[in-house]
Write a structure and sequence with these properties.
Helices cover about 55% and strands about 15% of the residues. Helix 8 crosses helix 9. By secondary structure, the chain is of the alpha+beta class.
C-alpha cells in the first residue's frame, strides 16, 4: 500500500472515530437531559404529612360528619365505658374527647349515655358542608370553620359568630384535636380569603395545555426528536408556581441552539 493510501485510510478512520465520538456526545447530552428533567420534576413534588395530603374538602367533610354521628349515637343506647371510647377514639384526640364526655355523659346502673340537647357543648359544630364551610391547611394541621349569621328563630337563638375545629395527625391518623368555638386564628381567616381571591383570578386565565400536544407540528417533531419535544413540553407538567423550573428548560434549549450554530 502506498504512503498516500495509508494517509487517506488514516484520515477516513479518524473521521469515523470523530463521528462516533460526536454521536456518543450527542446521546450523552440527551440522556443527561432526560435525567435532569426527571430529577427536577421529582424535586418539585413536595413531601406531605397525612394531614396535608387530605386536600379534598369532601374527605374532610365526611370525616367530621362521621365524628358528629359518633357523638350523637351515644344518646341512642346505653354502653359500657369501653364501648364509648371505642366509638369516639377513631375521631377525637384525648382533650376534646374528655371535654365532651365530662360535659355530656351520664351514668345509670353502670352504663353510659348522653342526653339529647339543642345547645349541648363540645359537639362538632352544625356545619352546612357547603362553600361556606372553610378548610385551611397549615403545617400539618387542618382548620375547619364556618361563619353563622345571627338567627333568633327556633328553640335556640344566637348572634353572628364563627365556629370551628382543629384537625391534626395523631399517630398517623387524622383526629379532631381541638374544638375552637369562635377562636379561629386571624391568620387562618386571612389565608382562606386569600385562597378564594386567588381561585377567582385563576378561573379567568386557566391555560389549555392540550393545544401544543394536539398540533401536528409538535407530534411530527416528537417522532423526529422525542428528546427535544420532551424538554419543550416538560413545563406543562408543572404548576404555575414552578416558573423557575420552566425557565431552566427554556434556558437549556436556547443554549443547545446557540451551540449548534
Amino acid at each position: 500500500m502506498h504512503a498516500s493510501e495509508n494517509v487517506f485510510a488514516g484520515k477516513i478512520e479518524g473521521a469515523h472515530i470523530l463521528i462516533d465520538k460526536e454521536r456518543e456526545s450527542g446521546m450523552y447530552k440527551h440522556i443527561t437531559g432526560i435525567i435532569l428533567t426527571i430529577a427536577v420534576m421529582v424535586a418539585a413534588i413536595p413531601s406531605h404529612t397525612y394531614a396535608e395530603r387530605v386536600t379534598n374538602k369532601e374527605e374532610v367533610y365526611k370525616f367530621l360528619q362521621n365524628a358528629f354521628q359518633a357523638q350523637v349515637s351515644l344518646s341512642e343506647e346505653e354502653r359500657s365505658m369501653k364501648e364509648v371510647n371505642e366509638l369516639l377514639d377513631p375521631y377525637f384526640s384525648k382533650e376534646p374527647k374528655t371535654q365532651f364526655l365530662k360535659e355530656n355523659l351520664v351514668s345509670e346502673n353502670g352504663k353510659f349515655f348522653t342526653l339529647g340537647s339543642d345547645a349541648a357543648a363540645y359537639y362538632i359544630p352544625f356545619f352546612t358542608y357547603t362553600d361556606n364551610t372553610k378548610v385551611v391547611k397549615e403545617s400539618g394541621k387542618v382548620y375547619v370553620y364556618e361563619y353563622f349569621p345571627e338567627n333568633h328563630e327556633g328553640p335556640v337563638g344566637y348572634d353572628s359568630h364563627y365556629e370551628g375545629v382543629l384537625l391534626e395527625e395523631k399517630e398517623g391518623e387524622l383526629k379532631v384535636d381541638k374544638l375552637l368555638g369562635e377562636n379561629i386564628p386571624v391568620r387562618i381567616l386571612n389565608k382562606a380569603e386569600g385562597h378564594e381571591e386567588a381561585a377567582k383570578q385563576a378561573s379567568f386565565k386557566t391555560p389549555d395545555n392540550s393545544i401544543l400536544l394536539n398540533k401536528p407540528s409538535y407530534q411530527f417533531g416528537f417522532l423526529l426528536d422525542p428528546f427535544d419535544a420532551l424538554f419543550r413540553s416538560g413545563g406543562m407538567l408543572l404548576t404555575e408556581n414552578k416558573q423557575g423550573i420552566i425557565a431552566l428548560f427554556e434556558h437549556q434549549e436556547v443554549n443547545g441552539q446557540l451551540a449548534a450554530n
